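Task: sequence design from structure.
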């Protein structure tokens, strides 16, 4: 049973499920922002010859820029949290070593 638990811990199933749920939420948010950005671009560029195609490219560019910025921020936060977790793990190991000496 212990081997099974260790394998489950290694797989990080909880993290995978949480990541999937957050991705689904992100998709819903992205779709609503897509409509909002399309509406904004339609106001700025009224329909003319090729205007709708241009508005699609402007929308795609704006969304891409937004996603790149947000992904960069998320990766920075993740790196910072991983560093904190590693330091905390090291400290806990040192405390455990102190108790094992006695």
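Answer:
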């Amino acid at each position: 049973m212990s081997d099974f638990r260790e394998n489950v811990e290694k797989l990080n199933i909880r993290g995978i499920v949480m990541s999937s749920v957050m991705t689904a939420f992100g998709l819903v948010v992205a779709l609503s922002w897509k409509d909002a950005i399309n509406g904004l671009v339609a106001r700025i560029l009224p329909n003319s010859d090729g205007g709708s195609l241009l508005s699609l490219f402007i929308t795609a560019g704006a969304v891409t820029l937004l996603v790149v910025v947000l992904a960069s921020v998320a990766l920075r936060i993740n790196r910072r949290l991983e560093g904190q977790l590693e330091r905390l793990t090291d400290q806990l190991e040192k405390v455990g070593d102190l108790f094992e000496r006695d």
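The CA atoms of residues 39 and 59 lie 10 Å apart.
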